[in-house]
Amino acid sequence: xxxxxxxxxxxxxxxxxxxxxxxxxxxxxxxxxxxxxxxxxxxxxxxxxxxxxxxxxxxxxxxxxxxxxxxxxxxxxxxxxxxxxxxxxxxxxxxxxxxxxxxxxxxxxxxxxxxxxxxxxxxxxxxxxxxxxxxxxxxxxxxxxxxxxxxxxxxxxxxxxxxxxxxxxxxxxxxxxxxxxxxxxxxxxxxxxxxxxxxxxxxxxxxxxxxxxxxxxxxxxxxxxxxxxxxxxxxxxxxxxxxxxxxxxxxxxxxxxxxxxxxxxxxxxxxxxxxxxxxxxxxxxxxxxxxxx
Length: 293
Known about the structure:
This protein is α+β, with helices and mostly antiparallel strands. It has 6 helices and 9 strands, in the order αββββαββααβββαα. Helix content is about 55%, strand content about 25%.
């Protein structure tokens, strides 16, 4: 019977310890995931920023469009981060665009106070196609053109700046794109791509592997810290309880000793009183006998 009770006691202790350890491990895992998500959002900027541009025609034959970089109160471009800026134009293969030839593109970076911090210029054009090539292409794809399944258009991707770094003292608030020339277009987009290097490259390119390794490392560290602090706190609580129990035992002993002393003194006093009373009664009895004689 004693052996069965000992086994049940050990099993209950094992279940209790395993439950505590699993709870602490899950808590540390949740904390590590939260910390990594906060670190990821703070450390890594947006990898791709795409903004549609609505141009307006201004004299003399200049298209001007404005792009805001603030989706939220937080800044879009990170300080010290390199970006690749390009302009994507969807242009029709019209005679006007082919006759226009080269056209200039200017990008002005404006801060929140309206000051121009950076101005970048580049050139662009449609891919050249001769009249004979265009005629053959039109005749070959004539059924598709007629049914509306295919259109005569080109996607032109113009590289504006390869390594753009935002000014830390005058951060970019908006960008103004200017196209010199009456260019016909379907749509226009400004693409801003972050160029990662070092730890940012591995976190972005190897997202699942890096997140798994970093969260596992954080989980182990946080689990050890929580476990040691938990057992230290537990030992401190139990040691204080033991000290309190010892103090209570000492107080009980002191009180019992004092009570014994009080009882002893009371017993002594009662004995003395009885002895005195006996003497008085004896003397009174003797006097009584003398008077009767």
